[in-house]
Specification:
single chain, mainly beta, 2 helices
Length: about 425
């Protein structure tokens, strides 16, 4: 990981809207263990960039008076961005319902999984497709839970090792499992549950759960706060965190080792991590995170840092005040500020990947960000120090609906999944158009 930079000045303008008129709760970082979190209580209606993808809805509401157009559900959408490079799109798979993640193996086989059914599908380079058998047990699919992240081990060509994150109805948790893929992708054989006990709630909101398989063999895992107020600041809970583990689930070497803390935690104070990406050539890890009514975020992940989300407010449903600031610098002056914040309205940021091929020309090296509510892919150029976004353009705006996940392929193309629901979803292959 890179050295930690000096903290940047407070972005007071972006924060002022959210802080104005909001009563700040006491900074309490004690919570019940995940197994004891309240079950069955009536939740307050979630706000912000919640994921209602199974219904094909846009899921996020902007504040009254925000700039931007109104969506079909009455929510405020962000204004159009500058048009990015021309691209060509190929449909790799169709007829899917909420394919949450997508991977590609060294032989060119593309694999995705449906969040709500747990069905895993493989598409081969010759155009044939087949289901992949995997015993996920009783899959919990409430809210935003189900089969979520999928990643291939860096040495997949020899190990055939695959990682998934899914919500388990019997264990009342979300968990990361290691599997071995059959040579023909006919099945996944379970090897081990390497991380269990990731916080999950009966309503299923804010479930994460993105997996980044690092070239060094470790795994980064982004989780959600389960819409429970005490979780993101509680170092005993794996919810609202970025975890860093070795391939057997043991803590990596750079995690938090405070007394009472779960040693798998790398960073904390997150609301709902949806994307993780490794920047080529720098070793920097970035995350994408759903905001509330404002401030979706792109964050630079640094070991031990608090990212400032603390919705704990006793006495309301689930003690969760979703009007809290995404990065509460009054409560946590040393919290890590976002590299980029959407402000108002939100965009519903989701999967991210870096463009890493000269065919992208001047946008090579940019961070590609999938957008659910705003139905586009944003390309963000980062500053040399990685702490600012210096330019942003869009591609595929309103052409394929909600975009959920992005994965880079070796030839520079990007795999993307849509999130429109009801059998209308696809896996797309996106490449820069050939210059005339």
């Amino acid at each position: 990981m890179p050295d930690r930079p000096e903290r940047r000045p407070v972005r007071s303008i972006l924060r002022a809207r959210l802080l104005a008129g909001v009563a700040t709760a006491a900074a309490v970082s004690v919570a019940a263990p995940v197994t004891a979190l309240a079950q069955g209580s009536v939740p307050a209606p979630p706000v912000g960039s919640v994921d209602a993808g199974s219904l094909g809805s846009t899921g996020s509401s902007g504040s009254a008076g925000s700039l931007g157009s109104a969506g079909p559900g009455g929510e405020t959408l962000p204004p159009p961005l500058k048009q990015g490079p021309a691209v060509e799109v190929e449909v790799v798979l169709d007829g899917l319902t909420i394919p949450w993640d997508v991977v590609r193996d060294p032989d060119g086989v593309v694999v995705t999984g449906e969040r709500g059914t747990g069905k895993i599908v493989a598409a081969r380079p010759d155009g044939t497709r087949s289901d992949v058998e995997a015993d996920l047990g009783r899959l919990f699919t409430g809210g935003e839970s189900g089969l979520m992240g999928i990643a291939l081990a860096h040495d997949f060509a020899t190990s055939r090792e695959v990682y998934t994150c899914h919500s388990d109805d019997d264990a009342d948790d979300s968990r990361v499992t290691a599997w071995r893929a059959a040579d023909d992708w006919s099945r996944l054989d379970e090897m081990d549950v390497i991380v269990s006990g990731i916080a999950r709630q009966d309503i299923g909101h804010h479930s994460g759960c993105r997996i980044l398989a690092h070239p060094d063999g470790t795994l980064y895992i982004g989780t959600g706060d389960t819409f429970h107020g005490s979780v993101p600041q509680d170092l005993r809970s794996l919810g609202g965190k970025v975890l860093h583990v070795k391939r057997d689930g043991a803590p990596a070497d750079d995690t938090i080792r405070e007394e009472g803390a779960n040693p798998r935690i790398l960073t904390y104070g997150h609301r709902n991590v949806q994307g993780l990406a490794l920047q080529p050539g720098t070793g920097r890890i970035y995350s994408a995170e759903h905001g509330t009514l404002v401030d979706d975020e792109i964050n630079l992940i640094l070991p031990g840092k608090n990212y400032g989300w603390d919705p704990y407010r006793p006495g309301i449903p689930r003690d969760h005040d979703d009007a809290s600031p995404m990065t509460d610098l009054e409560k946590f002056p040393d919290a890590m500020e976002a590299v980029w914040s959407s402000g108002d309205p939100t965009w519903a940021t989701s999967g991210i990947t870096f463009l890493d091929h000269p065919s992208w020309r001047e946008w090579n090296g940019a961070l590609a960000v999938a957008m659910l509510k705003s139905k586009r892919i944003a390309l963000m150029r980062l500053s040399d120090d990685g702490l600012e976004v210096t330019d942003t353009v869009e591609i595929l705006a309103d052409e394929h609906g909600r975009i959920r996940s992005l994965t880079s392929e070796p030839d520079g193309t990007i795999l993307a999944t849509t999130s429109n629901g009801n059998g209308r979803d696809e896996v797309l292959r996106i490449r820069p158009a050939v210059a005339e």
